[in-house]
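Run log, item B.
One chain of 504 residues. Sequence copied directly from the ordering sheet:
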Amino acid sequence: MRKAKRLKALVAATLTAATLFTACGSPASSSAAASGSTASTAGSSSVADAAPAIDEIVFMSKDFYNDADYTELFKDLFKEDTGVELNTIAIPSNGWEDKVTASFMSGELPDLARLPADLYPFVKQEFLLPLDEYIEANPAVKQVLADNPGATEAFQFFGETYGISVSNAKYMTIWVRQDWLDQLGMEMPTNLDEFVEMLRAFRDSDLDGNGKNDTIPLTMPATLQPMDMFAAFFGTRNEVYMEDGKAVVPYRTEEYKEFMEFMKTLYDEGLIDKEIPTNTAYGTIREKFNTGVAGAAVMWDDSSSSFINGLAKSGIEGEIAYMPAFKNEDGDGAMGLSYFAADSPICLTTACENPQEVFDTFFDWYLTSENGIISTSVGLEGYSFEVVDGQVVADPEKGIGFHGQSFPPVDMDYEYPFQFDETYQFKYDCISEMANTGAEMSDLVNTKFVPSDNTDFANINGDLTAKMQELFHGYLVGNTDYEGYLAAFETYAAEIGLDEAVAG
């Protein structure tokens, strides 16, 4: 009997749409409640009860789907509820980290901005305001954040808070074409041998029926952190991490060598995507899975609806399931989950002339009002969806906004005034199950990152991450052997003073 969750992608399934605030990837909620949850903070906002002291908020955010109609309707709703105009600056999603950094460096600062997870460069350049006094002055928002420390803890520097993460993807997993497993008479893998056997079967079988030997057994992003789900199996990580209160540099260890050799074997056998080094956009991963090219994909825990709807849009009646994490034989490592601390925080900039008023207006509405929560997690009724007999019915061309930021902002409990259909209830169930597994296997799959107040390491970490990705890809595709990789790493480590920086 299958233990993995599964759901069929029907041609008539709704198509995924996005909201202004959707993010591809981002921290997921273990306690976020779908319909039937027991608590709600909606209605606690004071924004609508008092005349605002400001008339406009300039907000910069990444724009994933460029739905101009939705954006305008969303802004109208915000104005209606708060009395404040929301002037949005949309940053294209491709290379958005570089684009938003360039915008800031040019001096074009909004009042509010949704920024990359690595906030330290923005803090270092004094682009951002500490939020603590504004949080303290807003009881409703303060309570939400007190109940959800994960929304802020990754963005605290030198004892001050500089960002609030509102997207809720926390883990990456391996999504699998369950119908392909069924065709092969195979069960979901529960150990490493079964995992490799599944990939080989996907490679060797013409499961898409096109008569070509072009199937990608497993596709994944170019970045290394998602590959923590493989590294963790060997007891290591793809970044400098904390263990027993000390920073560990994994790149020269025997465990990391074993991880690299395993990934190299998968690559050489054609079991993972040959284009990994160029898979720099998550949309590329989705396209390969949604068009039936790939049998499995490393992707966010909240990706089920985008896969279900994507397969349906391609005319494919496929079933999907995620591969539950499993431990190694010794029980000291696990495969199947990659942990991400937080992502895409919203921050106040130093250009904001009325920070308390902006903070109260935006975050009150966003985190504590019914319209704010629903519009940024589900969409707009009458545009994205209708409610029929108490259940959300998505517009077949737009769908509801459960891509990226799924369910309420942060990890708050919230009782929606409607029920969700099978697709989105399945999504919530998957997110919850993975979060529970992550909690149970915390020591094996959850990465403890180097504290941000180690400024020596923070100053080099971005460049280190890019360099290690370059070295890993070079080894993976065969441009160098392990000895060449290790020599290049040690040379680079000496150049940047890695060991000294890690020691603090």
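Observations after the first pass:
- Residues 170-339 form a domain with the D-Maltodextrin-Binding Protein; domain 2 fold (CATH 3.40.190.10).
- Residues 224 and 238 are 6 Å apart (CA to CA).
Flagged for discussion on Thursday.
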